[in-house]
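Predict both folds.
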Amino acid sequence: MTRSVFFVSDQTGITVQTLGHALLTHFPTAQIERIDIPFVDSPVKATAALARILDAAGDGEPPVILCSISDDAVRAIIKSSGLLCLDVLEAFIAPLEAAFGVTAAQQTLHTHGAPESGDYEERIEAINFSLAHDDGVDGKHLSDADIILIGVSRSGKTPTSLYLSLQFGIRAANFPLTEDDLENQSLPKSLLPHRKKLFGLSIDPMRIHRIREERRPGSRYASLPQCQFEARQALRLYQRLNIPHLDSTHKSIEEISTTVIQQFSLKRRIF
């Protein structure tokens, strides 16, 4: 039977969603319906959220609540459900207060991602940079890049670049390796001055073939021989030029990004 898990927060809910999803992955056989209720920042909204949760409780297995609410009164309303309610702030803030010997300032819980904050500006600048330098569109400002991802089409360059910019504020550009590059075993000229910033993504030919077939079915671009050629030549290029690289076939963008950050000792600009 499906079990409802409510993620309740007084802000966007990103914190409780991230932690909650990480915890729930440890229960792969459980049938779980995830329900987000963000911006529960007043007693009125908390009462409405509680009614919604209790309504779900009448459908079978009792729901589970994961919450991150800083206001004591608002949090108390949610906890009055009598259901299992795990407060992520309560679990971590109190021990940290004891460790630091100071009381946590609740107002700081509301500043993350605020338009006037430095983190917000860093994130927007990094995202704009990654979008402007996606797929080799703009090669004029690569000197400002923290990292340049290279690889064949559909190897995961764009989503990884955007993740790096969105989550870490890293200015990530990405550049495609064309058929000419692969045949000549050479880098595009615009990348030559930035060899130290290059990171290559390789991928299994069958994986590229399946992805490309969904976009351009029956095309030469999507054919298995073409995919095999490109994957083989890209890997050969990385090895010949000693470019650090990673097989992205079975890696998530989170795993790829973490590898890139560690490999190049990149500094996170936003928290």
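Second protein follows, with its predicted structure tokens after the sequence.
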Amino acid sequence: MKINHATPRTLTEGDHSLYIGLTGSRTVVCTAETNARQLGLSRRPLEDLLVFNTAFGKTVHDISLNAVANLGYADVRFMCHVYSGDTLAVETEVIGLKENSNRKSGVVYVRSVARNQHGHEVLSWVRWVMVHKRNHGASCGAPVVPTTDAVVSGVRLRRDDYSAGVREITAMTGVTDLWEDYTVGTRIDHPGAMTINNSDHSIATRLYQNTARAHFDGYAMQSAGSQRLVYGGHIISVCRALAYDGLENSLSILAINGGSHVNPTHAGDTIACATKVIDKIDLGQDYVGGLRLRMIGVKNANASSISFPKACESRPAHPSNVVLDLDYTIAMPKRSA
């Protein structure tokens, strides 16, 4: 089944400024036009996660409006920068279905692609979401569970956006750490934390035109014995912004290899996060290398309290205060060849 999601969305400088206001993002290449040009880009790109959350929001009405929960992501690829004035259109294909044992719900697996006004793919991703069944007794047939790679391989990562000018980023941040200075196993406890206000996550979800009832309808959530949930994409954005300290010279997100919203976040919770370097990827470029990172976000606790699961644990048993476990890859400038 293929779905063309309504309606295409043009992203503007206003959207970008509002995103910064909601998350506090300080990504250097997206902060100032002068930064972007000095680093070798034609102009300042939009924040990667603004693009992701906007494209994701387009799929919600058709895929997860009535979802029980958004369960996870895989194979998320950021294929080129998106700029102010670009228009995104999104298409989704259902690639798997699996009924749950209680026969009241099931998991839907989808692959979505966002294209700009020129028809170029700018973003693609796989996600799976738990959805209620209309008729609990209806037969759903044999389960179809798609296979995805655990990691977006280096050959599939974007590698042609940057030139030697990216090394000048150290003069902008005042931090000298580049790709060569990070080692596998390095842990970074990011010192900042952010409390999620009702206004923050409400405005963020509206910015992305994400219509999921769990984020908007307090009456319905209260009737179900719960309260409104903070959209998981907002938590990813907040944690990414907090991770600036320790990853100051990061250029952009290349891929999200996998991720899960482990426990819910509600208004009033305070988010902190820590990152571990789990791999270094040579992109075959003189100027930029890849860092594969694992970022864990917690609520109402310090980053130093976070315990990273062992690499062999595919489904780790996180404590109840962990809200995000994200495996992603970033572009980081290299020193001179």
